[in-house]
Amino acid sequence: MNNSTGCLANATICEGDSCVVTASNFNDILSVVLSTVLTILLALVMFSMGCNVEIEKFLGHIKRPWGICIGFLCQFGIMPLVGYILSVAFNILPIQAVVVLIMGCCPGGTASNILAYWVDGDMDLSVSMTTCSTLMALGMMPLCLLIYTKTWVDSGTIIIPYDNIGTSLVALVIPVSIGMFVNHKWPEKAKIILKIGSVTGAILIVLIAVVGGILYQSAWIIAPKLWIVGTIFPVAGYSLGFFLARIAGQPWHRCRTVALETGMQNTQLCSTVVQLSFTQEQLNQVFTFPLIYSIFQLAFAAIFLGIYVAYKKCYGKTNEEFPDQRQ
To answer: What is the pTM of this model?
Structure first.
């Protein structure tokens, strides 16, 4: 440990209370291997989630996209605005503010689909919202970044990885579509696949968080303001998404779904944008914010899930007894 800076002895970039340790070749290889394995596992989990989606209801959300429109407003209206307000309120560095805004402009993450299942949400709406937000991110990410980041930086310096967005879209649509087909043709088998996949998905979420913490332990010493922003941001997304959906007259299970879709961002995409857009020297101030956000979005989602499960047990209600569940 370097006593003068508080950084690790092998830290190569140190500035103030932030430090970055350059990843070793072993970590690079391990990262590629684990990313490949986790991508395959995630595709299998999304296939199982698709087994809970009914084609007719899914198409119904596409034809009457009221829920999707609410989700769009939350995803590309509320989240970038909240990111901007938090950046100004905490007076963080310009480069840190840009990364916070990049996170706010990202589409919803696939983990929201898994959690939507566990909170008895509308799976048809969840999948359609994730798919549409990922597709619309191709145009909305550059637009939102152009609007909000010009306070601090030229938006032209931020590189949008369209190939990564396209890959995320394909990795979501194909397995879910296969799952929907299985549910349509063999509904009984789909139920078995769904039970296995839901448990696997919960384990996978925890595994991704742990792996991320191990691979990117390089910059845990970071400005306290970013920790605070990373804590508040997902909570604000969950809360505002829930209340906006309720104000719009959506039933409770769809409010839970919209809340998760709003607060649960695609942190992997944010990390890619950050790494493509900034130099190694700049990364020491922002490198771990996507991971911080990811940890807290999962932590608070787990708390909300625990509260919901406790509520069901306390009042002795099953899924079928919730009056809005089939609306």
So the answer is: 0.75
